[in-house]
Amino acid sequence: MTTHEGIRSAVSTDGDAPLNNRVHHVRSGELDGYAAISGSTVGSKKLWMGLVENPPLSATDNHHHGASEAGIYVVSGHPVFVYHDGTQEVRITAHPGDFVLVPPNVPHREENPDPEEPVVVVIARTTQEPIKVSLPELYQLKEAETETEAQAQAR
After folding, report:
1. d(Cα 118, Cα 40) in Å, to the nearest integer?
2. What gap in Å lies between CA 128 and CA 37, rounded to an integer?
3. Residue of 12, 34, 39, 119 with fewest CB within 10 Å of its CB?
């Protein structure tokens, strides 16, 4: 792992809990894989942020991220976010400067249909764990399915 400016193992005056009272700076090029801000890089407790690049003519599998919300900022390229609204497949084409929210438990996939330009996005999510539940197809999850999956992930 890369050592980042401002990271120290600080301990509270009573010796119990570590303090996280410093501003952390992660420079361009110092990411730990995709992760820039995470528990393992800067001691973040509730936030994960990273940079992801999808090559030309690529697509992820159909998946969801369990209880994690994902906020996405498009840096470059024109990603297509695909999900099912319960009636039909919906395709959202995003452009540089756009933001996209993927709510918890929403099956989706990301596509880069461009034959030449990669897609670069910054992702922020509300869990530290890299939750990815692959699915055979896109469909709208029902409440009972999300509860069952949450219970299975808690084990």
Report:
1. 27
2. 10
3. 12
CA separation for the pair 141, 143 (Å, rounded): 7
Reported as a single tens digit per residue, the pLDDT across 2-36 is 444 444 433 334 444 444 678 888 888 888 888 88
Share of the chain above pLDDT 90, in %: 53
The C-alpha atoms of residue 117 and residue 96 are separated, in whole angstroms, by 12
CA-based nearest residue to 39, from 100, 150, 133, 125: 125
**Which single residue is written with the structure tokens 């993927």?**
102
Rounded to an integer, what is the distance from CA 149 to the centroid of its chain?
A: 19
pTM: 0.76
Residue 40 three-state SS? helix
108-122 pLDDT per residue, tens: 999 999 999 999 999
Q: Quote the tokens at residue 101.
A: 């929210």
